[in-house]
Amino acid sequence: MDGTNIGLDARNSLRELNRRYLGLVASAGSAPALSRVAGLSPPQLAAAADCPYALFDVRFGDEQYWSRRLHSPHQWHVADAPLVLPEAVEFVRLALFYVWHVASGAPLHAQLLLGMPRNVAAAFALLTVDRLPGIAIAEACHLTPRWHTCDAYWNALIDAAARSSAAALRRAQLRGIQFAAAARLPHGPIAAGGP
After folding, report:
1. Strands (E), the chain
2. pLDDT tens-digit profile of 56-85?
3. N or C: more exposed end of the chain, with fewer CB within 10 A?
């Protein structure tokens, strides 16, 4: 598996995951930042999902959390997981399989597409597939929109998709790329402000 193929496969699968996530949010109505997604048509939803990064998050950027979670499997049990919608669990199961696949084949892609620190991507790459379903059940409660505190980003993305404006959609997507790049900077005055 070379980097070119994993890159194209990862991007196509990511678009599908983004579309699935936006559909989940639209049907569940559980994310305030995305409440207007329900009004998008299927083509508009696909346009919003066509970003070169994940629109969803499962605490992927939290290195300490995932380090404890993945290195201490006996500390966590499925019975400890809070109750969440089965659709959310199914989405997180699929997303974690995607994360594992990308982290195993192209760890840099996991960092760029999902906002994962290098050590988290490396830890996911060491997992066996058998561990993923249990982790998904326990972690589905942490599923949120990426940059969920930045209403300006989500409003711009949803508005651009609703208007079918390619230029506005590209500007919203570029803003997400800026957020993703800023998250990779060393923590300092610029990165501390966040999205």
Report:
1. 56-57, 144-145
2. 999 999 999 998 888 775 555 555 556 788
3. N
